[in-house]
Amino acid sequence: MKALVKQKAEPGLWLVDVPEPVVGPGEVKIRVLRTGICGTDLHIRKYDDWAKSTLTLPLIVGHEFSGQVVEVAEGVEDIQVGDLVSGEGHIVCGKCRNCMAGRRHLCINTVGLGVNRDGAFAEYVTLPASNVWVHRIPVDPDIAAIFDPFGNAVHTALSFPMVGEDVLVTGAGPIGLMAAAVATHVGARNVMITDVSPERLDLAGKLGVSLALNVAQSSIADGVKQLGMREGFDVGLEMSGHPQAMRDMIANMTHGGRIAMLGLPSEEFAIDWSTVVTSMITIKGIYGREMYETWYNMSVLLEKGLDLSPVITDRFSYRDFDAAFDTAASGRTGKVILDWSDAAPRA
C-alpha cells in the first residue's frame, strides 16, 4: 500500500510502498478516506528538535483521519465492516491508576498514533477497537477526519461553563477557530478571537464570533471596549502557545476568571503570577480529548447544527502531499485535508 513515511533523519516525508498492516487481537483495520494535517505532522516533516528526540524511524505519520472499516478481529463487538469511523489517536495502557479510574485521557503510558506507532497517512491503518469511534449519524468524511483536533477544541472550550459568559480565544488556527465556534454555539455572550493572520480572522467571522481582532493592529483592551464590556473576560481559551498571548489574556480576565490552555509553548516563559493570585484566576492545562465524553459531545454538537465546514479551507490528493504540507505550514489557512479515496481499493 501507499503511505507517507518519515524514512530519513532529515527534513521531508516520502510517499512509498509499504506492507499493509495486519489486524491484531482486539483490533480493527480501516481503509483511510481522508486525513487532516496537524501541527505535529509539520514538526515531523521539518524534523525539528522535538521530532529528533521523539521519533523512531522509519515511521508512517498521521493521526487525524476518517475511513471505512474493512476487517475486525475476532471478538470485536459493535463495529462492523463498512462503518464510517474516526480514530482516537491516544492509545492507552488500561492498567495505570488513571486508566483504572476511568480517566484514560490522563494515562501515563499513552502511545501516540503516527508518533510512537505507525499512523494514518496510508491506505490502511489498524487501531485497537476501543480507539475506534463509529459515526452513528451521517457525517461528511472531511469533517470526520478532523474529529481529533475538533476534540481538542471541544475539550478546551467545555472545560468551564460557557452559557452567558464573555470568552477570549487567543490563536485563530484551526483548533482555535473550532473552539470559538463551540463557545458561540453553546451560548457564550461575547466570543472574541485574536490572531495576526487576516485570512484566519476572516474565517473566524464566518463562524459567528462577536469580534475577530488583529492584535498586530489593536489590543485586547481595545476589543473589550468595542464589545461594550464593563469587566474582563470570564473564560479564556489560550490556543496559540505564544507568551504574549498568555500575558495579555491574564491581564484582561475578570476576577475569578478561568483559563484553559491548549497552546503548547516552544520554551518556558514568565507570566504575571501576582495577577493570577490576586485576581484568583484558574489556569487548566489541556491535552488531547477526554475518552470518550469529548467524542460524545462532538457528535452531539454536530447533530444539533454546529457547522465546521468553514474551518476546512484546502483539499489535496495524497499524491500532492508536499503542496498540502506547504499550505498548512503557511499559517494563513484553516484545516488542510488529504484525500485518499482514490487510492487502490482492496483486492
Explain the overall architecture.
The structure is a single chain. The protein is an alpha/beta fold and 347 residues long. It has two domains: 177 residues, Medium-chain alcohol dehydrogenases, catalytic domain (Quinone Oxidoreductase, Chain A, domain 1), CATH 3.90.180.10; 133 residues, Rossmann fold (3-Layer(aba) Sandwich). The chain is built from twelve helices and 18 strands. Strands 3, 5, 6, 9, 10, 17 and 18 form a seven-stranded mixed sheet that branches. Strands 13-12-11-14-15-16 form a six-stranded parallel sheet, with helices on both faces. Its EC number is 1.1.1.103. It is found in: Cytoplasm. One of its GO terms (molecular function) is zinc ion binding.
Determine the N-to-C terminus distance: 11 Å
Secondary structure tally, helices: 12
* pLDDT averaged residue by residue: 96
Helix content estimate: 25-40%
Largest sheet: 7 strands, mixed
> In the CATH hierarchy, what is the superfamily of the largest domain?
Medium-chain alcohol dehydrogenases, catalytic domain
Name the CATH architecture of the largest domain: Alpha-Beta Complex
Proportion of beta-strand residues = 25-35%
Shape: globular
Order of helices and strands: EEEHHEEEEHEEEHHEHEHEHEHEHEHEHE
Can you tell me the CATH topology of the largest domain? Quinone Oxidoreductase, Chain A, domain 1
Cofactor: Zn(2+)
Enzyme class: oxidoreductase
Family: Belongs to the zinc-containing alcohol dehydrogenase family.
Active site: 40 (charge relay system), 43 (charge relay system)
